[in-house]
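Try it yourself: sequence plus acetyl coenzyme *A, in.
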Amino acid sequence: MATKEQAKSKDGAQAEGKAKADGAAAPDGKSSADGALSITDSRTGESYEVEIHDGTIRTMDLRQIKVSEDDFGMMGYDPAFLNTASCRSAITYIDGDAGILQHRGIPIEQLAEQSSYLELAYLLVFGELPTQPQLERWTYDVTHHTFVHEDIKKMNEGYRHDAHPMGMLLASVGALSTFYPQAKDTEDHEERYMAAIRLIAKVPTLAAFAYRHSLGLPYVYPDNELDYSANFLQMLFKMENSFEPDPRLAKALDVLFILHADHEQNCSTNAVRAVGSSDVDPYSAVAAGVAALYGPLHGGANEAVLRMLREIESVDNIPAFLEAVKKREQKLMGFGHRVYKNYDPRARIIKKHVDEVLEVTGENPLLEIATELEKRALDDDFFIERKLYPNVDFYSGLIYEAMRIPTDMFTVIFAIPRTSGWIAQWLEMKDDPEQKIARPRQVYTGKRDQDYVAIAEREGPEKITGPPARRPKLLRRGA
Ligand code: ACO
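Structure, out:
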């Protein structure tokens, strides 16, 4: 790509060759452009042609658009990546307008109905459904890496009794890198495989340990005789040797794990890829994903949904709550999605399972509030105009609560299956020859070329900025 005028010049020819080499080719490198975008720069009157591949242009192709020789060149400005593809990926397909979600081409509805979480994890990591022997080997490997080093327990002892389990999980996933330093060799395919196995196997154990710590209860070790979800339930709840997880609850949890396993370039996956692009070990990269998931606008939303439902307290209070949302005094948690502008297909599947779980565990009064809240919101112009529908988090919290899982643990449970998505995305990034260390540009808006002023000569208000040196006593939580 080059200006039409420059195309014949030496520099122009180089620019064109570079643009072609950079062109968004298919993985086989042989695809030709779908078309071209013609751009005329009104500042200079110059015209440019930018190749289009897969409905995208390369923003690097804009760089040659300059007003002068020493101009840096045009960049794309896209805060929060609203319209920027950061990678090519063959893992998860989403059509947000149509409400479609597929992993490796298989619809989420079929996976939720017919697969298991561990089989899906294999599919995400390797790209194909496993054969019977492959699945047996994969299951064996995961099952036999569920134990964690005893020193993790010592680490946990350092936390306060009310430490948020997500903070504990974040730290312990990062700490795994110190137990498996060989994982730093990210080019070694065996190390990559072992990291995938260990992360998928150990995250439930770390999660359950964080939960038991919050109750001051002794940790329960993994039980290799149980499947993935049943084992997690027993690590949470076992109080005596006879504990047997209800198979219906284990199945519902497995479906929830399937629904949360991957969701293409969401906030936490982007964090894993961005941090992993520095070539740090995969445990540290996945810890970045856990940190991102912690936020209430991402994985923390199901926790926020339950708090919201409790605050609403009764169906009678729903109209007032919705009015407050419309006045922007509140947010309807569990509604809205950056990608889905339709009903989140995962929410539809979860909704079906809520009743099954409540049959085992007994009624939950919050379900009535949730159902009525959804109905009224979907009938309300404010939500219709903005295409706000329930997302995966709207109903998942109700299932967790019915299983007697405390609210603080919801995001932790989300992190368990998302680990397979993070590691699959990390592996894909490692094998992508186009990826480099992630390093966005900025549009600088600050001052330039200021002289340093000695402190005695500085002028300004007496007001001190920042938090008060002494906070009110009640807010203090110790040293
Ligand atoms: N309640 C009320 N209004 C909302 C909500 C909501 N939950 N979500 C979006 N809106 C409004 C916005 O105020 C905005 O209105 P405006 O155009 O009049 O200003 C409009 O809808 C568009 O919303 P954006 O903020 O531009 O949407 P964005 O894609 O940036 O945000 C997000 C998506 C963060 C998920 C948002 O919908 C939200 O905060 N939802 C609640 C939190 C939640 O449930 N998160 C879970 C997401 S799923 C997951 O992470 C697994």
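One thing you can check immediately is this: Residues 297-298, 301, 325, 331-338, 386, 388, 391-393 surround acetyl coenzyme *A (CB under 6 Å).
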